[in-house]
Design goal:
Blueprint: H1 2-9, E1 18-27, E2 30-36, E3 47-52, E4 62-64, E5 66-67, E6 72-73, E7 76-80, E8 84-86, E9 95-99, E10 106-111, E11 119-120, E12 125-131, E13 138-144, E14 149-151, E15 157-161, E16 166-172, E17 184-187, H2 188-193, E18 196-197, E19 200-206, H3 222-225
């Protein structure tokens, strides 16, 4: 636990939030997790990715990032590297979707209905989406390097498949840090040595408050900067 706090303390400009990961059980080859914030509330759209182990590649799939009521739907889309994403526009107005994120820089100029073709996402990382017409539109595509990843539901529950010999987990959430690329790293040993309650391992991580707007680091992603 002290390692985690030192890691967080050295990271400037973090959002004040805590994640409580309850390792409920291991059923077959899946970890059942419960993710809570510092107030004990469930954390939705937290992505847990398994690190290490014997991981097979997944077959490429076609995924959907829709636009409904001037919002991206889903707000966070978890895909595997190699998947394609289609961006239908279900609104009765036109949108102009773009991203400046390093894993996938692109733009789909002003359009209605559906673009001509889906886009391929081959590089792992976080792709932050915006609309050049509607500044409040914000969405995320998390491109996982492995199929051993899963996202928490509205109750904070997540079941992530675990390969043999895995070394740990990473946790990503849009409010974890000002930089969208930041992830929390948790080793298997840290999970095993964390406090237990009714046989359940709990890991609590409290983050530092964000830096003032005028002191935000240059590498701060545009997604979180739009919130402030």
């Amino acid at each position: 636990m002290s390692y985690l706090y030192r890691c967080i303390a050295q990271r400037p400009g973090s959002v004040c939030i805590a994640l409580i990961l309850a390792l409920a059980s291991v059923q077959g080859q899946a970890l059942e997790l419960l993710i809570r914030d510092q107030h004990g509330q469930p954390v939705e759209n937290a992505i847990v990715t398994v690190v290490g182990g014997s991981q097979a590649k997944a077959e490429p799939q076609l995924r959907i990032m829709d636009q409904v009521n001037r919002a991206f739907l889903p707000h966070v889309l978890l895909i595997n590297a190699g998947d394609q994403v289609e961006f239908p526009n279900s609104d009765n107005i036109r949108h102009h979707v773009y991203s400046f994120s390093e894993p996938k820089v692109f733009e789909i100029k002003l359009y209605a209905d559906r673009p001509k073709a889906p886009l391929s996402f081959g590089t792992p990382g976080v792709v932050v989406l915006g609309c050049n017409i509607h500044d409040t539109m914000l969405g995320y595509i998390y491109v996982s390097p492995t199929p051993h990843a899963a996202m928490s539901d509205n109750e904070g529950r997540v079941s992530v498949p675990v390969p043999d010999g895995y070394e740990g987990l990473t946790v990503w959430h849009e409010f974890y840090a000002l930089s969208e690329t930041e992830v929390l790293e948790i080793t298997v040993a840290e999970v095993q040595s964390s406090p237990k309650q009714d046989g359940t391992a709990q890991i609590t991580i409290e983050l530092l408050p964000p830096a003032p707007v005028e002191q935000a680091p240059p590498e701060t992603g545009f997604g979180n900067s739009m919130r402030r």
